[in-house]
Design brief:
The structure is a single chain. This protein has about 90 residues and is mainly α. It is about 70% helix and about 0% strand. It contains 3 helices and no strands. The longest helix has about 40 residues. The model has no long low-confidence stretch (mean pLDDT about 80).
């Protein structure tokens, strides 16, 4: 005897896929590594707030890198200018 299916639709999983979960774990790692968060703190954040903190941390790191880059470019120019502008003895 052939079993009868109750539903005619195919079974669909409504769970989270592997790509989504990998993205979540990347956010956890980033918040732990760069932000000093514990796993429990990052895990217990609401999704929207966790995403905001991750994006804001990326912006902060990029701003700091840009400032260091500008400072190193400006310090190299100022050292060159002061070396050639010194009075001759």
């Amino acid at each position: 005897m052939k079993p009868k299916w109750r539903f005619r639709l195919l079974r669909i999983s409504f769970g989270l896929n592997d790509e989504y979960m990998e993205n979540v774990y990347e956010q956890f790692f980033f918040l732990q590594y760069s932000g000093g968060w514990s796993f429990t703190e990052a895990y217990n954040l609401p999704i929207g707030l966790r995403r905001w903190f991750a994006k804001r941390l990326v912006k902060q790191i990029n701003d700091e890198n840009e400032a260091m880059k500008n400072a190193s470019n400006n310090s190299g120019k100022s050292q060159t200018l002061t070396r050639y502008n010194q009075p001759k003895r």
